[in-house]
Amino acid sequence: QVQLVESGGGLVQAGGSLRLDCAASGRTFSRFHMGWFRQAPGKEREFVAGLSWGGGTTHYADSVRGRFTISRDGAWNTVYLQMNNLKPEDTAVYYCAASPTWGPNGNSWSHQHVYDYWGQGTQVTVSS
Fold first, then answer.
1. Residues 35, 109: contact at Cβ < 8 Å?
2. What 8-state DSSP symbol labels residue 88?
3. I want to staple 6 with a disulfide (CB 3.0 to 4.6 A). Which of 1, 48, 62, 119 is the partner?
4. How many Cα atoms are found within 13 Å in the side-chain-facing hemisphere of 22?
């Protein structure tokens, strides 16, 4: 059974920081690309950040670039999302996801359909 479990969400004031963790179990995710998505109330789920399986390539949504950092541990079991200078508009449920390949051309990191495994989500609330 494959599982992705997010943790680290919570309530923080604007300008503050949080780190989200995504723990993987059930199989080896060392060859999977990883992504973070988020869904705000009343909005569709959107791409936040992506990390290639080798760790050498990262992608970010324009709204978080320069503030968020995606990374993974050396054992390839945990993926992190470090979020700095948080804004009220970052309030959402954050999901991690794993993809065996970012589409046929390897460039669909922001497309939800290429991700086969998803966590249950963790709430992040940023107060103004």
1. yes
2. G
3. 119
4. 29
